[in-house]
Specification:
The protein is mainly beta and 127 residues long. The radius of gyration is 13 Å and the shape is globular. Strand 4 and strand 5 form a beta hairpin. It is built from no helices and 11 strands. Strands 2, 4, 5, 6, 9, 10 and 11 form a 7-stranded mixed β-sheet that branches. Strands 1-3-8-7 form a 4-stranded antiparallel β-sheet, with no helix packed on it.
């Protein structure tokens, strides 16, 4: 399976921005659809963003649509999550995930769809 390492988390004031990165290794990155999830204390892991293998198709839940942007650089085996206009309710541990399922146009939004997970990076948004 592919190995994933997230970075870029930190403390930011409300209205600020952060860019998370997730570096993959161990397999051919372009064979994997990618996703970002987050988990706040006492809550279930929540879908944040998805991208297909080529990067041409993305999907977001309403809670982050228009504020977050997922992208990927297959040459660098890295997926990114640009987060703008951050809110205190965005505070969570953010995880990237990978799956080799589906086809080139496929993207996935459920935790059960993904086989590989990173260790997570903490994002804290102060009010």
């Amino acid at each position: 399976q592919v190995q994933l390492v997230e970075s870029g988390g930190g403390l930011v004031q409300a209205g600020g921005s952060l860019r998370l990165s997730c570096a993959a290794s161990g397999r051919i990155f372009s064979n994997y659809a990618m996703g970002w999830f987050r988990q706040a204390p006492g809550k279930e892991r929540e879908f944040v963003a998805a991208i297909n293998r080529s990067g041409g198709i993305t999907y977001y839940p309403d809670s982050v649509k228009g504020r977050f942007t997922i992208s990927r650089d297959n040459a660098k085996s890295t997926v990114y999550l640009q987060m703008n206009s951050l809110k205190p309710e965005d505070t969570a541990v953010y995880y990237c995930a990978a799956t080799a399922s589906g086809f080139s146009a496929s993207y996935f939004t459920r935790t059960a769809d993904f086989r590989s997970w990173g260790q997570g990076t903490q994002v804290t948004v102060s009010s």
